[in-house]
TrEMBL record:
GO biological-process terms attached to the record: defense response; negative regulation of defense response to insect; regulation of defense response to fungus; regulation of jasmonic acid mediated signaling pathway
Gene Ontology terms, MF aspect: dioxygenase activity; jasmonic acid hydrolase; L-ascorbic acid binding; metal ion binding
Similarity comment text for this entry: Belongs to the iron/ascorbate-dependent oxidoreductase family.
TM stretches of this protein: none
Catalytic reaction list: jasmonate + 2-oxoglutarate + O2 = (1R,2R)-12-hydroxyjasmonate + succinate + CO2
Alphabetic keyword roster: Dioxygenase, Iron, Jasmonic acid signaling pathway, Metal-binding, Oxidoreductase, Plant defense, Vitamin C
Cofactor: L-ascorbate; Fe(2+)
Identification of the protein by name: Fe2OG dioxygenase domain-containing protein
Organism the protein comes from: Malus domestica
Lineage, opening ranks: Eukaryota, Viridiplantae, Streptophyta, Embryophyta, Tracheophyta
The organism's place on the tree of life at top rank: Eukaryota
Amino acid sequence: MSCPQDWPEPIVRVQSLSNSPVVPDRYIKPPPDRPTYIPSSDISDHANIPVIDLQGLSGEDDRLRAATLSQISEACREWGFFQVVNHGVSPGLMDKTQQVWREFFHLPMELKQAYANSPKTYEGYGSRLGIERGAILDWSDYYFLHYLPSCLKDYNKWPALPDYGREVIDEYGKEVVKLGGRILKALSLNLGLGEDFLQNAFGGQDIGACLRTNFYPKCPQPDLTLGLSSHSDPGGMTILLADQQVPGLQVRKDDAWITVKPAPHAFIVNIGDQIQVLSNATYKSVEHRVIVNPAKERLSLAFFYNPKSDIPIQPVKELVTPDKPAQYSPMTFNEYRLYIRLNGPRGKSQVESLKSPRNTL
């Protein structure tokens, strides 16, 4: 099974539809999947994902370090999502990177079209996930690019405009990769493993890393569609730089959708399916989705910190016991991510399909 070279239907850029009076039928979700639009002013701080100060991980205060690790452990077990502040990435670099992408998405369409992507690799300027003909689509455009391994990093596939953009994106990727390594150490320690265990399971320094910048144009009927359908992330861990001004990310918690209110210059971190598999479901990836706004566009940067693509991922033997046998069959990340490239986002159906036969009885 492999991805086709091209999309099954002509691509329509959602940005070109944002001034329409109504949402076209292709974007209208079935009634059970439609969101309730919530104005930003009505989003409560009390129903937010945990916010964790990472400064405690790098200091010499053992008590503070232990408390920070405990906060991360609890967030992973209870939410699968948390925000991090004092994470080591410069706020100025975060702002500048968002500005690069805003400028790109506001370029004339003919300049952006030069970077149009295909389902073969997804790299470039895109407007849909999945190749099902006639599928109900999401209200978003995006740009996907590879950062690691170095052999996949091709600056010619990165936007040349604005002219300072490639340099900024490169520096941003370098800093977020460092952050990903720090968080992965914390997850390893919290699982009772050596601090480098998960990094080595991902392939050591030979990991995969990629960036998807999501652009959600304003939408005339935000209660009929979604910017991104419900899904869990197929990779290892996602480090999201959300739009500070326009909330949109919703996380599923106890059968309710919680709208995340981003902390200033925070990153939102979430567990992906690969860590669910490696941890033998001690940590679980969590369904999330994106709602859209009737008056404002929204932009977010999702940085995916993934295992090397050809390493079979399976439960770590130290986390397999007679009481908790291996929950999942081995599969490489290359094989795994093909599912979403063919089918688009579909809840947690992919990781559930990996369960070992004895765990599905």
